[in-house]
Amino acid sequence: MPAIDDLLENNRAFAARFDHGHLDVRPSLHLAVVACMDSRLDVFAALGLKDGQAHVLRNAGGVITDDVIRSLAISQRRLGTKEVVLIHHTDCGLQLITDDGFRAELQEATGMAPSFAIESFTDVDENVRQSIARVRHSPFLLHRDRVSGFVYDVDTGVLREVEP
Ligand code: ZN
User: Fold this and answer.
1) Which of 4, 81, 119, 152 is most exposed, with minimal Cβ within 10 Å?
2) Residue 99 belongs to domain spanning
3) How far is ligand 1, taken at its centre, from the CA of residue 106, in Å?
4) Residue 56 Cα to ligand 1 middle (Å)
5) What is the distance in A from the centroid of ligand 1 to the CA of 39?
6) How many domains is the chain built from?
7) From ligand 1's centre to the CA of 59, what distance in Å?
């Protein structure tokens, strides 16, 4: 049975107890968070964030791709965010693949070589530093001084900062 039926039921209960009206489209903490899509990381709960406070951008690995830069450029230039927090985590699915292996798998299965980078990694701290560097060096962003990066431990919920 697909998950959507339960999700819609959950939403009816959620909407019934929805307790704030319209919020400003601009995040009140002037904050953007970029995180991995991992299902064990609840960004709002882990950081104590509430609706309206931050942009949360997610993809496999929390990688600073061109598309994340696109979103951050809009976030900073139109919606007033000035700080970027990056969250990677232990036991990431991207540590289970290699760029070459996954690329070959996609090409063999489809006959098409993907145009995107796979962005697998082995050292999570180094991966966070890579993401920090990409934000700091993007010419499209207005605010590149307040960028911090963390590793979230999926077994304890603890966030550990990575020095750039
Ligand atoms: Zn991950």
Assistant:
1) 4
2) 23-162
3) 20
4) 15
5) 8
6) 1
7) 8
At 158, phi and psi to the nearest 5?
A: -80, 135
Q: Residue 35 sits in a domain of what CATH number?
A: 3.40.1050.10
pLDDT tens digits, residue range 61-73?
999 999 999 999 9
How many angstroms separate the CA atoms of 90 and 131, rounded? 16
Backbone angles phi, psi at 83, to 5 degrees: -130, 140
Give tens-digit pLDDT for 15-42: 999 999 999 999 999 999 999 999 999 9
- Residue 151 Cα to ligand 1 midpoint, Å, equals 10
Establish if 14 belongs to a structural domain.
no
Could you give the CA distance from residue 133 to residue 118 in angstroms, rounded to a whole number? 18
pLDDT tens track for 109-128:
999 999 999 999 999 999 99
pLDDT of 73-95, one tens digit each? 999 999 999 999 999 999 999 99
144 lies in a domain?
A: yes
In the reported structure, the alpha carbon of residue 92 is separated from the centroid of ligand 1 by a whole-number distance in angstroms of: 4
Ligand 1 centre distance from Cα of residue 61 (Å): 4
